[in-house]
Structure formats: structure tokens, C-alpha cells
Write a structure and sequence with these properties.
Distance between the termini of chain A: 28 Å
Low-confidence stretches of chain A: none
Helix content of chain B: over 70%
Structural class of chain B: mainly alpha
Largest interface: A-B, 34 and 31 residues
CATH architecture of chain B: Up-down Bundle
Radius of gyration of chain B: 21 Å
CATH topology of chain B: Four Helix Bundle (Hemerythrin (Met), subunit A)
Structural class of chain A: mainly alpha
Number of helices of chain A: 10
Strand content of chain A: under 5%
Order of helices and strands of chain A: HHHHHHHHHH
Order of helices and strands of chain B: HHHHHHHH
Oligomer: heterodimer
Number of strands of chain B: 0
Shape of chain B: globular
Largest sheet of chain B: none
Number of strands of chain A: 0
Mean pLDDT of chain B: 84
CATH class of chain B: Mainly Alpha
Number of domains of chain B: 1
């Protein structure tokens, strides 16, 4: 039975690991700036690659936006356990009487903060350079649910790929096929926002279902991945 | 690498690195022992005979399809390949759960062997599907839900095999692979649903897949025979690949022991 005390302890553990990661990142600014620049660059490059004009921008732009988000996310997700691996502090973290789910929750929240910040900056730029009316309230649940899906899988697989010699190479190869449903759903939902279609499917529901399933599987299996 | 007919206890004897069998693997031992000694020959013969019979039936027993002509006969290879691929991936999923639960190394080897067989068969499914699609639809590839899901599945399990090759035969690598084996399989229905929805926005190609509802009995019989034959072949391959991995793991351990001594 989950009592108030264990819940509070879980929250405290999560918060302290999250706070540690945020402070490290705020001091070094290694990941966040690179992710943001990468997302902006991707948006600009897609504009050349697809030769966007008024007649095709609404069809292509949502895909470009989400590819930029996914690629920038992978950059940040790859660094999830970088500090721990470089300083060998993961063993010490595991020695602490910390719930493994709290470690997962903290790393996931940290990734959500970084990816969310990048999205917060990229979205107005996207709306401006693609000249699309996406800055409405409707974009918030799409971006939020889509990002949770990418980060839920990404955080779990960052731990898996981090155990190998080739973590930067392996992470996108493992994550991209798994997040196909999120990418399809998010792109379609964003498209529906720009030019609403009659009889549009419940894309947000699909992404939400994906999020719930993968958050619960990741929370359960994470302990097996980092166990030494 | 073949050790057909060798007494099953022999490789395990005097191999201190191998953990003794526990749990369900040990409970199955009395059944597995005679099966390993003789059953394998029977299985090899049955699957060889079955595949030959199924091919004969596909070419000479099954009637020629009215619209597609002889091209449709590829169905008798394509559908069983797909069945075996999906069966193998389900076994990866189940064996991965059992490995994380029981920590018996055999479940890990079973999962690994199935991932290899499943990836091979998925590759063949995609190739035979393309060969079938070219004359019938006029295109090597159509972004149909079933094809796209199979392609994504192929990517997931190639990733699984890559992960295994990067992590070597370590316990941590086995646990990571088991997590991927579980997550990857759970992803399949969501993938299928999302791709089906995605496709409904476009005109769907006319697919002959799934069979005609009024298929003649000869077609159904040939298909069932081919399904049985390929399932036997799968079982035979599984035993071989499983044994290969067991021996490789053991060889690696013995080498490590010599080097450390």
C-alpha cells in the first residue's frame, strides 16, 4: 500500500536528483544551448530542403517541426546519464537508499524541462519563419503529450545505450522506431490545428494512451537497466 | 558448430561457468533430454519434408489465381514467413519477461535466438512482399499499415541485435536487451493502430493480402500445410541457434577463465 510517507519520500528523492541535474546544467549550459541551436537550424534547413511556399507549407511544416523536436530531443536525451558516466557517480547514486523509480522520474522530468525549454523557444520562431498560426492554446496539449512520449522512451533507452560503447550511435537507432506512433500522432494533430479537417481522428488520445503505456513500462523496467 | 546427437549432459559437465538450470528449464529437463537426443533428427526430417511438400502443393496442387495468375503462389511462402516472424518476436517478448523474472540464462539465450530468427524471417517477408507487390500493385512498396508495421518491427529488432552485439555476453547487456524485447513488442499494436489511422487519410491500395473470403479448399489446405512446415522449420532453427549461443557463451567464459588464470 502506498502511504503518504513513502509518497513524500519518493517526491523528495525525485526533487533532489532533479535539482542536482538542473543546477549542473545551469552552470555548464552544455546540453540546452546545443539542443536549442540544433532545433532552430533544423527548422531553417527544412525550409530549404522542401522549398516551402504558400501552397505546400501547411502540409509539410508540421512534419518539419516534429522532426526538429525529435532530433533535438535525441541530442539532450543522449546526455541524460553523461555526468554520471563521466564521473562514475552512478554507482554512488545506486548505493544510496533511493527508489529506482525516483531516479527514472527525476531523469525524465529533467529531460522534459530541457526539451520543453527548447520547444518554448523554437515554436515562436517556427510560427514566424513558416508564417503559420500555431501559437494558439491548442498547441499546448499536443506538444506536452508528444514530448512526454518521446522523453519517456528516450530516458529509458538513454540508460540502456549508456551501458554500451556506442551510446551516441545506438540511442537514435533504438528510439526512433519505437516513437513512430508519437511522431505520426503529433504531426497529424498539429496539422489538424493549422487546417482543421472534418472527421479528424483522436490523435491526442492515441498519444496519451502511448504515454501512459510507456511511462508505466519504463518505470517498472528501469530498475533492471541500471542495476549493477 | 553442430553437435547433433551428442548427449545433452556432456556440454554442461565440467563447465563451471554455466549456471545450473533452475525453474521451468529444470522442470522440462526429463522431457527435453530424450527429445534432444533423437527428436532433433525427426524434427529435421519433418521440416525438410514439410517444406518440400508445401512447395510442391504451392506449385502443383493449389489452383492458379484468376486475376493475379501464378504470381499469387508467393502467398504460400510469404504468409508462413510472416507467421514465423511474428511468432518469434512474441517468444522474444515472453522469454524476456521470464528472464527478468527468473534470471535463468536460458531464457536470455532463447530470446536472443528468436530475435535472430525473427529478424531473418522479417527480412524475407519484406523481400517476398515486394516481389509480390511489384507485379500485382505495380510498385515494390506501398505504405500499407501491415507493411509499414512490419518494416518498423524490422528496425526495432535490428536495433535489438545491434544492442546485443555492442553489449557482448554480459549480464547487464542481457537485462537491457530483455527490456528492449518487452518494450519493442508492446509497441507493435500501437504502431499498427497509428499507421492504420495515418493511412486512412489517403486512398488505400487494393490489397490482396488477408486472403479471399471464398478461397477454394485447395488454397486453404496448401496454406495450412505451408504454415505447419515453416513452423517445424522454425522449431528446428531455434534449437540450432539456441545451441550455438549456448556454446559460444560457454566458450567465451572458458576463454576468460584461461586468460585470468
Amino acid at each position: 500500500m502506498i502511504t503518504m510517507i513513502t509518497l513524500r519520500r519518493f517526491g523528495a528523492q525525485t526533487a533532489s536528483i532533479l535539482w542536482k541535474d538542473l543546477r549542473c546544467e545551469l552552470r555548464a549550459r552544455q546540453v540546452w544551448m546545443a539542443m536549442g541551436m540544433f532545433a532552430l537550424l533544423a527548422l531553417v534547413i527544412f525550409n530549404f530542403a522542401f522549398d516551402l511556399r504558400v501552397d505546400n507549407v501547411a502540409a509539410v511544416a508540421p512534419g518539419a517541426l516534429w522532426i526538429a523536436f525529435v532530433f533535438a530531443s535525441i541530442l539532450g536525451l543522449g546526455r541524460t546519464f553523461a555526468a554520471e558516466q563521466e564521473h562514475g557517480s552512478l554507482d554512488r547514486l545506486l548505493l544510496c537508499p533511493v527508489d529506482r523509480k525516483a531516479i527514472y522520474a527525476a531523469k525524465l522530468l529533467g529531460n522534459l524541462v530541457f526539451i520543453g525549454a527548447v520547444e518554448l523557444i523554437s515554436l515562436p520562431v517556427f510560427a514566424a519563419i513558416y508564417n503559420l498560426p500555431v501559437l494558439t492554446g491548442g498547441i499546448i496539449p499536443i506538444v506536452l503529450l508528444g514530448t512526454v512520449g518521446i522523453a519517456a522512451i528516450g530516458t529509458l533507452f538513454a540508460a540502456i545505450a549508456g551501458n554500451t560503447r556506442a551510446r551516441e550511435v545506438l540511442l537514435p537507432l533504438l528510439v526512433f522506431p519505437l516513437i513512430v506512433p508519437v511522431v505520426i500522432g503529433a504531426v497529424r494533430a498539429t496539422q489538424g490545428l493549422i487546417s482543421p479537417l472534418a472527421g479528424d481522428l483522436p490523435w491526442l488520445g492515441l498519444i496519451a494512451a502511448f504515454d501512459v503505456i510507456f511511462l508505466s513500462i519504463s518505470a517498472v523496467t528501469f530498475a533492471y537497466v541500471i542495476e549493477e | 558448430m553442430h553437435v547433433v546427437g551428442q548427449p545433452p549432459a556432456a556440454p554442461a559437465r565440467g563447465a563451471p561457468g554455466l549456471a545450473p538450470a533452475t525453474g521451468p528449464a529444470r522442470a522440462l529437463e526429463p522431457v527435453l533430454r530424450p527429445l534432444r537426443a533423437y527428436g532433433e533428427y525427426i524434427l529435421a526430417a519433418a521440416s525438410a519434408l514439410g517444406v518440400i511438400l508445401a512447395l510442391w502443393a504451392a506449385f502443383f496442387y493449389a489452383p492458379t489465381e484468376a486475376i493475379q495468375g501464378d504470381v499469387q503462389r508467393i502467398e504460400y511462402v510469404h504468409v508462413p514467413l510472416a507467421w514465423v516472424a511474428y511468432l518469434a518476436f512474441f517468444v522474444v517478448f515472453a522469454a524476456s519477461i521470464l528472464y527478468l523474472w527468473r534470471r535463468d540464462e536460458r531464457w536470455d539465450l532463447i530470446a536472443r535466438a528468436n530475435a535472430e530468427i525473427g529478424t531473418l524471417f522479417t527480412t524475407l517477408v519484406l523481400v517476398t512482399g515486394s516481389l509480390w507487390g511489384r507485379p500485382v500493385w505495380g510498385a515494390w512498396w506501398a505504405w500499407d499499415a501491415r507493411m509499414t508495421t512490419t518494416l518498423i518491427l524490422w528496425f526495432i529488432y535490428v536495433g535489438y541485435l545491434l544492442l546485443r552485439s555492442y553489449t557482448g555476453r554480459s549480464e547487464g547487456g542481457a537485462r537491457s536487451a530483455a527490456v528492449l524485447g518487452i518494450v519493442g513488442f508492446v509497441d507493435v499494436p500501437i504502431n499498427y493502430l497509428s499507421i492504420t489511422w495515418w493511412r486512412t487519410q489517403h486512398p488505400a491500395p487494393q490489397l490482396p493480402l488477408g486472403g479471399e473470403p471464398q478461397a477454394p479448399p485447395a488454397v486453404v489446405e496448401t496454406l495450412l500445410l505451408a504454415l505447419l512446415a515453416f513452423t517445424l522449420l522454425y522449431a528446428y532453427l531455434l534449437i540450432q541457434v539456441y545451441r550455438l549461443h549456448r556454446l559460444q557463451t560457454e566458450a567465451e567464459r572458458l576463454r576468460a577463465r584461461i586468460e585470468s588464470a
